[in-house]
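A.,

Following up on our hallway conversation. Structure tokens first:
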């Protein structure tokens, strides 16, 4: 076994183990950390497959930004774990059905596209970033634009949900805060100083 094959199996085993641990642990913070480990090992596998741009983007964007945000949100929210586990048994059959369907699709893809020979090495002047951009903005330009519009709608919906008026919430008028004077906020009180005993 070559060192490259050893590295592939090493990262693959860690990737599968971290993915299984991510969906089986009970603590959401631990699940997010296992997802970070999954992303890092996926990036290592992509770099081994000469897709350096995708690997670096996965580490910088997902591990460096998105997962840090997830961790902050998870740690700031007061998540009731007992309430989260209430509907587990009720939705277990649907979960098993979806898991079996996904496993079937993955097995069919692996069996259909499995190759024993490694792919041919790219030339020294080959740029996978340029190839990815060429395919993304020519062959897949319409799905790319549709995904961008869907993300824009999601951003607008999140902002609209945040800014909606809810009864019982306290709001502060910034204009009134700016026009506050010292006389309206501070009251001077004369007090006798305590003498030394």
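Then the amino acids I'd put at each of the 197 positions:
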């Amino acid at each position: 076994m070559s060192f490259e094959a050893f590295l592939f199996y090493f990262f693959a085993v860690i990737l599968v183990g971290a993915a299984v641990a991510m969906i089986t642990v009970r603590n959401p913070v631990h699940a997010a950390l296992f997802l970070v480990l999954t992303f890092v090992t996926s990036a290592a596998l992509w770099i081994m497959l000469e897709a350096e741009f995708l690997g670096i983007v996965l580490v910088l964007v997902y591990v460096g930004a998105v997962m840090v945000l997830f961790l902050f949100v998870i740690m700031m929210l007061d998540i009731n774990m007992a309430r989260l586990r209430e509907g587990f048994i009720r939705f277990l059959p649907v979960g098993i059905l979806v898991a079996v369907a996904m496993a079937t699709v993955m097995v069919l893809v692996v069996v259909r596209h499995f190759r024993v020979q490694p792919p041919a090495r790219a030339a020294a002047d080959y740029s996978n970033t340029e190839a990815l951009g060429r395919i993304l903005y020519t062959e897949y330009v319409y799905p790319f634009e549709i995904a961008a519009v869907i993300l824009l709608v999601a951003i607008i919906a999140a902002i609209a949900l945040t800014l909606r008026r809810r009864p019982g919430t306290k709001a502060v008028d910034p204009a009134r805060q700016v026009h506050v004077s010292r006389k309206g906020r501070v009251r001077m009180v004369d007090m006798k100083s305590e003498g030394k005993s």
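The chain has a mean pLDDT of 83. Curious whether your intuition agrees with the design.

B.
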